[in-house]
Amino acid sequence: MLTLEEKFRELDKRNQEALVGGGEARVVKQHQAGKLTARERIGILLDNGTFEEIDKLVKHRCTDFEMEKNKISGDGVVSGYGKIDGRLVFVFAQDFTVFGGTLSSANAGKIVKVMDMAMKMGAPVIGLNDSGGARIQEGVQSLAGYADIFHLNVKSSGVIPQISAILGPCAGGAVYSPALTDFIVMTKESSYMFVTGPDVIKTVTHETVTKEELGGAMTHNSKSGVAHLMGDDEEKTLMLIRELTGFLPSNNMEDPPVRPSGDDSDRQDESLQNLVPADPNKPYDMMVIIESAVDDHNFLEIMPHYAKNMITGFGRLAGRPVGIVANQPAFLAGVLDINSSVKAARFVRFCDAFNIPLITLVDVPGFLPGVNQEFGGIIKHGAKLLYAFSEATVPKITLITRKAYGGAYDVMASKHIGADVNLAYPTAEIAVMGPEGAVNIIFRHKISDKEKADAVEDYRNAFANPYKAAELGYIDEIIYPRETRKKLISALEMAQNKSVSGPSRKHGNIPL
Ligand code: HXC
After folding, report:
1. pTM of the predicted model, to two decimals?
2. Centroid of ligand 1 to alpha carbon of 25 (angstroms)
C-alpha cells in the first residue's frame, strides 16, 4: 500500500508532467517562432493567480498509428476558468507544443466542457487558437469533436460573449469555430486563418500567394472583414481582449458593467461647434465627435481597418457602456456600401443581444451607386443593416450631424424604425437626396445653368436642413454641437429602463 507521502508525490509527478506539455525543445521552438506557450498566454490574459485549470490530466484514447505509445497529459489544450478585472471568464488555449495543438476527441471534450460550464454559469468564453487543425491520427473522431464545438458555439451565440484569439495557425474547417464567435482578435505576423492554404490554392487556381497575404492578421482585419481587432504582438492581442470584455456583460441576462468615471456628464466641448464645415462637400473626422462625447475620451474601435466609411466600437457614457455606430464622412464621404452595411449590422446585433445601448451618429450621403455594388448584392446587404437596427430593442439614440439622405436616412436608426431619441445638429440636411441630384431630376428641362444653380440654392434652403424633419417630430431636438455629450447622456438615462417585446416567433429571417 502506498504511503500518504507517496500518493502526494504521485500527484506532484503527474501535475509536473502536464505542465511540461510537449517538452522543453518544443517550448523553445515555440518561443523561437515568436509565440508564447498556452500557459504563458493564459497568465497574461487573466488576473494574476486567478486561473484554475480543469482536465489537466486528460489524455487521448487513440490507438492508431502507435499513438498509444505517445500520450501527453492535457492532450494539447489548457482549459479552465479565471478572472478578468475580477469577473469570471472561461478559457481554453490550444497548446501547440503538444501534437501541434491539434484537435483530438479528448481535446475537443475539454473545450466542450468549459463551453458547457460557461453557458451554465453565464460567463464569457475566450478561446486562444494555435493549432494544426484536426488530429490526423484520429480521423473522423476529430471532425466530430469540431462539430460538437461548432454546435455549442451556435447555442451559446447571444447568450454569453464568445471571443477568439488567433495566435498561430488556424486552418481548414477549424476556422469555423472562431468564425461563429462574436469577436476575432489576431496577432500581426504570427497568426493566420484560411480554409485552404497557399499550396492547395496554387494547385487548384494557379494563384501564388503567401500565408501572410492569404490569411494574416492584416488581411482579415482590412480585406476580408473576418477579424475585428489586431495586436502588434501576443501580449497586446491579449490585452485587447481584456479591454473588450470590460465593455461586455457576462451574459445576455445582465446589463453591461457600469464603470463610474470622473468625467463630468455635463462637460461641453466648444471645439465641436466648428467641426462640421458649413460647406457640405468638405469632409471632417467623425471620430472627433465620438472621442469628445465618451467618458475620458476612451473609445475601443472595432474593425478599425475595414470599411472605414463606417465606425463601430465601444465607449462609455456616464459610466455605462454603449455601442457606437457612425458614418465616417472623412472616408468615401461616409457612404453606405456592402462592406460598411455588413460591418455595422453585425455590430448592432451583437449590442442588441447583450443589452448594450446603441448611439448612432449619422452623416451619410446615401447608398453607393455602381454596378459592382448592385451585382454584389447591396440590396440584401443594406437590408441587413436596416433589419438589425429595426430589430434592436436596446435603447437607441441617434444624432444626425450633417447628411441624412434617402434610404440611408431611414436605415441609420431613424425614428421610424424605432429609435428612442433622435437629435440633429443645425448643420443637418435631411431629405430624399442632395440638392444637385434633386434639381437634376425635378428641373430636368431647365436648360440654363443659372436657372439650375438658382434651383439648387432654393432646394438647399428649403430642404437641406433639419427643420422639416423637426416640424414633423421625426427629430426630437436640434442641439448645439458643444452639448453632444450631455444630450446623449440625458437621452440614455431616460431610456435605461426601456422595455419592448415583439410577437412570439421562432426567429426572424434576416436577409443573409
Ligand atoms: C497531427 C500534427 C498535425 C495534425 C501538426 N502536427 N499538424 N499532428 N495532426 N493535423 C504535429 C506535427 O507532426 C509536429 O509534431 C507538431 O504538430 C508541430 O508541427 P510542425 O509541422 O513541426 O510545426 P510547424 O512547422 O510550425 O508547422 C505547423 C503547421 C504544419 C503549418 C500547422 O504542422 C501543418 O501544416 N500541419 C498540417 C495541417 C493540416 O493539414 N491539418 C489538417 C487540416 S484539416 P512533432 O511531434 O514533430 O512535434 C482540418 C479539418 C478540420 O483541420 C475540419 C473541421 C470541420
Report:
1. 0.96
2. 17
Examine domains 11-245 and 270-428+465-495 and report if their fold is the same: yes
Nearest CA to ligand 1 atom 46: 99
* Segments in 36-175 forming alpha helices (H): 38-45, 105-121, 140-156
Distance separating alpha carbons of residues 495 and 395, to the nearest angstrom: 6
Write the DSSP string, 389-409: HHH--S-EEEEEEEEEEHHHH
Q: Which atom of ligand 1 is nearest to the CA of 33?
A: 26
Ligand 1 centre to CA of 242 (Å) is 29
Task: State the first-to-last Cα distance of the chain, in angstroms, to the nearest integer.
Answer: 65
Residue nearest atom 51 in ligand 1 by C-alpha distance: 173
Residue nearest to atom 35 of ligand 1 (CA): 132
Give 381's strand partners: none
Active site residue 407: yes
Give me the catalytic one of 158, 172, 376, 437: 172
- What is the residue whose three cell numbers read 443645425? 426
Q: What is the CATH number of domain 11-245?
A: 3.90.226.10
- What is the rounded CA–CA span in Å between residue 183 and residue 191? 15
Phi/psi at 221 (5° precision):
-85, -25
Closest CA to 147 of 186, 206, 105: 105
173 counts as catalytic: yes
Give, for ligand 1, the residue of 66, 99, 105, 129 to mutate: max count of ligand atoms closer than 8 Å to Cβ.
99
Q: Alpha-carbon distance 333 to 446, whole Å?
A: 29
Q: Is 408 a catalytic residue?
A: yes
Task: Point out the catalytic residue in the list 118, 408, 419, 438.
Answer: 408
Q: Give the chain's residues under pLDDT 50.
A: none
How far, in Å, is the centroid of ligand 1 from the Cα of 102? 7
pLDDT digits (tens, 9 = 90+) for 431-467: 988 888 888 888 887 778 888 888 888 888 888 899 9
Alpha-carbon dihedral sign for residues 264, 266, 270, 276 = positive
**What pLDDT was estimated at residue 456?**
86
Ligand 1 pocket list (CB less than 6 A): 26, 99-100, 102, 132-136, 143, 146, 169, 171-174
When computed from its CA atoms, the radius of gyration of the chain, rounded to whole angstroms, is: 26
Q: What fold does the segment set 270-428+465-495 form as a domain?
A: 2-enoyl-CoA Hydratase; Chain A, domain 1 (3.90.226)
Other C-beta atoms closer than 10 Å to the C-beta of 31 total 12
CA distance 512 to 380: 7
Give tens-digit pLDDT for 227-236.
999 999 999 9
Q: For residue 133, which atom of ligand 1 is closest to its CA?
A: 52
Q: Which pLDDT score is estimated for 447?
A: 72
The phi-psi region of residue 66 (left if phi > 0; otherwise alpha if psi is between -120 and 50; otherwise beta) is left
Nearest CA to ligand 1 atom 19: 100
User: In the numeric block, which cell numbers belong to residue 94?
Assistant: 490550444
Task: Sketch the domain layout of the chain as residue ranges.
Answer: 11-245, 270-428+465-495, 434-464
Exposed/middle/buried for 158, CB within 10 Å: 0-12, 13-18, 19+? middle
